[in-house]
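Hello, quick one for you while I still have it in my head. Could you read through the record and tell me how the tokens relate to the sequence? No rush at all, and the record is pasted right below.
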Amino acid sequence: MAKKLWTVTEVLEFFQVEESFLMHLEEENIVCPTCGEDPSARLFHINELEKLRVAKILVEDMDVNLSGVEVILQMRKNMIDMMRQFDAILEDLARQMQQNLKRNRLVD
């Protein structure tokens, strides 16, 4: 099973970012750590790491500022949510079509 919570040190090493970059992302509520048993220990859920990964690319490779990162991440989340809704609609439609085909075969 994949690790779900990462320490700040692990995040900084894995993504090769400065702690100040991570702190800026936290201040802008782009990534949000969770607190474990030790309230001073900031842990990052795997979902937050994906936001950090995208934010790093946007800032370093595309020169997007943090406000832009926030907007892009929100738009990305909305698109993913819409794709899931669309997939659910298509699955429901396919299920209904299969039921109709079965009914039509029984009638014939």
